[in-house]
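Recap from last week: sequence in, structure out.
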Amino acid sequence: MSNRQNRAILHGDEDGHQAARHRRRITGSCGAMARPISVEQLAALVATRHGDGVHGPTIAGLTGSVAVGKSTLAASLAAALAPYWRVEVIQTDGFLFPNAELESRGLLMRKGFPESYDSARLAATLEAARNGPVEVPAYSHSLYDVDPALTRRIDRPDILLVEGLGFAPVSGDSRVIHALDSLLYLDATEEDLEHWFLDRFMSYWRAAETDPTSFYAQFRHLSEAEARGFGRTVVWRQINLPNLHEHISRARPLADILVAKARDHSLKLVRPELDWE
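Predicted structure tokens:
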């Protein structure tokens, strides 16, 4: 996809033949207007960061709260980019320390917090991906652990989308975010985030009824109401929400692209500030 095509899609006209329209501004300030944006337009905005490929793939990060829909958006962006570029998607969850190691360090209840990630390995993998094939570990939400069987090999795609947590600098360590060419932050209200998280938690809980290997099988003795209450009070409010406040949200002001997601899953572009005719 050429930059001309990218601009055309951003303006809502893939052929580039635009009718006259009023000048509109999108800003990242608190009281700003934000413009609805489609996945295709957002993909075009991501693609404008793509260079000539001489220095390896363009690496774009995608982050935001637990349950905001990072994986779904990454897959949709990859599908929109695929007709024009070779695209790969990887998840930072694959770079979590295994449960056994987290438990030995007393960090199992801190999974998803910065200290639960092998940040050095993640940063090294992203840098190595610019120069040649790399092995990328993967995570199983059903097992609630890194699964070696899911490890895969990627080889210098045009665009590498990296979705997950662990991008915000911690204690001066900014190796991961410095390995990116751009960062997209997917934002939403805390009310919507809790709603989506509980929907996901309960879907895993229900699936565990017929899957004894699932991490969530240990909660099957709870009633549905009890399981939902546990997900809300223990997992969301004591783990995921503090992680959002203390760490994840620190990546928001660093993001090149800030997108707001509504309960109906519609998207609005908050940043960057764009002027278009």
